[in-house]
Amino acid sequence: MTTGLRYVYAVCRPFGTPLQAQLRGVGGAPPALLHHHGLVAVVSTVPEADFCESALKAHLEDLDWLATTARAHQGVVDALTTVTTPLPLRLATVFRDDSAVRMMIEAREEDFRGLLDRLHGRVEWGVKVYLEPEPAEPEPAEAARPASGRDYLRRRRLQSHAQEEKWQRAERFAHSLHERLAERAEDVRMHPPQNSALSGTPGQNVLNAAYLVSRAHSEEFVELVDRTKDEAPGIRVELTGPWAAYSFSGEASGAEPAVGSGEGR
Amino acid sequence: MTTPSRFPEPYGQGSGANLADILERVLDKGVVIAGDIRINLLDIELLTVKLRLIVASVDKAKEMGIDWWESDPALSSRARRDELTRENAELRERLARLEELEPGRAPKEAP
C-alpha cells in the first residue's frame, strides 16, 4: 500500500469505554481516536489509491463498493452509538493527514459542541409504514367471466376503487401513527418514501420517518411501535434502530440541500 | 420482529435495515464537512441510488412503469441522440424556410 489518507466517521466527546478490538472500518482498517480540543474524531487510514478524487468518484458509481463502504461506515458509527453519542459525518469525508483533521475540528468546534449538546443521550429510530402488496388475484372462474365489455369495465372500476380505498386507509393510519410517535419524540424528520425496487422491500412505502428519542424513553417508544403492528390489516409497520442521530445532524452546515427530485424531473 | 428488549439491543439494524435505510442516512444525512477530497455526493446519489439500483433490473422497472430515464436527455444516450436528431431536423427546416424567403441570397453552391 502506498500512502494513506484519513477517513473520518464521526466526532464525539471523549468517552471511557474502549472500542471493541475486532472493530474494522472502511477497507478493513481498525478505527482510531484522534483527540483534539476536548473533542474526538474517529478516524481510520484508507489507501490513497482508492480514495483520491478520481478513484473515489469511480468507486461510488460501483454499487457493490458503495454498499460495502456504507455498511463499514455505519458499522463504526453503530459501535460508537453503544458507548457514546456520536455525530456521524457523511460518507467519504476524507483528509490528507491527522493535522488536516485537527484543523477541521478547530474550524467547526462550535458547531460540533452545539450539536453534541443537543443530541446528547439521544438516538434515532426509523419507522416505515407499508401498504402490503395485493395477494395474487384469484383467477376468476369460468362462470364469473365478464359477460360483456360493460361488465368488464364495471369490474375494473370496482377494483381500482378498492385500491384507492386501501391507499387512503394506509395514509390515515400512517398519519395517526406518526402523530402518536411524534408526541413521544423530541424531534422528527420525514424522509421520502422508499422505492420498493430500490429497497428490495415488498409493499408500497407510505411513511418513512425518523424520530429523535432519548435513551431513557426508547424502550417505551419501541413498545408503542410494537403495539401498533397488529392494529391495521394489510398494513405493515417496520422499526429500525437505534441509529446514531444521522437525520438530526445535518443542520449545522446551513441550508439543507434541495431534495425531492425523486420524480427525475 | 422480536419482543421489546432492553436498550441498546439493535432493532433490525445490520440485518433488518435494508441497504436503502443505510444509504439514505450515510449519503444524505449526517454532518457535511468539506474534506480534502471533494466529492459531490448529490451527483452520486442521483446516479447510483436513484438510477443504477433501479436500472440494475431494467425489465422489472419497466414492468412497474418506471422508465423516465429513457426520455430524460441527461440520463439516456438514446434520448440524447433522439434529441439531437430532432433538433437537427428542426434547424434544417428553419434554414430551408429562411432560404425560401430570400431567394436572391441563397445561391445554390452545394457541391
UniProtKB/TrEMBL annotation, chain B:
<dbReference type="Pfam" id="PF00741">
    <property type="entry name" value="Gas_vesicle"/>
</dbReference>
<dbReference type="GO" id="GO:0012506">
    <property type="term" value="C:vesicle membrane"/>
</dbReference>
<dbReference type="InterPro" id="IPR018493">
    <property type="entry name" value="GvpA-like_CS"/>
</dbReference>
<dbReference type="GO" id="GO:0005198">
    <property type="term" value="F:structural molecule activity"/>
</dbReference>
<keyword id="KW-0304">Gas vesicle</keyword>
<dbReference type="InterPro" id="IPR000638">
    <property type="entry name" value="Gas-vesicle_GvpA-like"/>
</dbReference>
<dbReference type="InterPro" id="IPR050530">
    <property type="entry name" value="GvpA"/>
</dbReference>
<comment type="similarity">
    <text>Belongs to the gas vesicle GvpA family.</text>
</comment>
<dbReference type="GO" id="GO:0031411">
    <property type="term" value="C:gas vesicle"/>
</dbReference>
<protein>
    <submittedName>
        <fullName>Gas vesicle protein</fullName>
    </submittedName>
</protein>
<keyword id="KW-0175">Coiled coil</keyword>
<feature type="coiled-coil region">
    <location>
        <begin position="74"/>
        <end position="101"/>
    </location>
</feature>
